[in-house]
Amino acid sequence: MSKIISTETIAKVVAQPKGKMIAYWTVTLLIASTITLSGIGQLMHNGGNVELVKNLGYPLYVLTILGIWKVLGAIALVVPSFPRLKEWAHAGIFFLMTGAALSHVLDNDYGDYGFNVILPLSYAALNIASWALRPKSRKL
Fold it and tell me: Are 131 and 123 in contact (CB under 8 A)?
């Protein structure tokens, strides 16, 4: 007679604490939505985008470039899989926001109460929080 030996494989699933997951999605959806809306506004040349870009001395086509990259970056943050793409999106958003703040500082365009510097730096901080809270499935 044959002897059947069964082996049982048990996969250990390490679940992320629920509070951390809620914090991750809250911050990620907040940064993705603000970046998306900003990108759409730049693509449509809405609001003060044209005046802002002209005042900083950049050509108007920069709005189209930034708008496209912002929308694509926000999409990359929320779609499942593609951890390397998410890393690049986080890096791009960080450089974009810190570059915006630095552009305003170098042009002495701080806005009311430093708004033109504080807003992009707060978006950069949200982006860092999203990156730091990401679940294991979204890491390289």
Answer: no
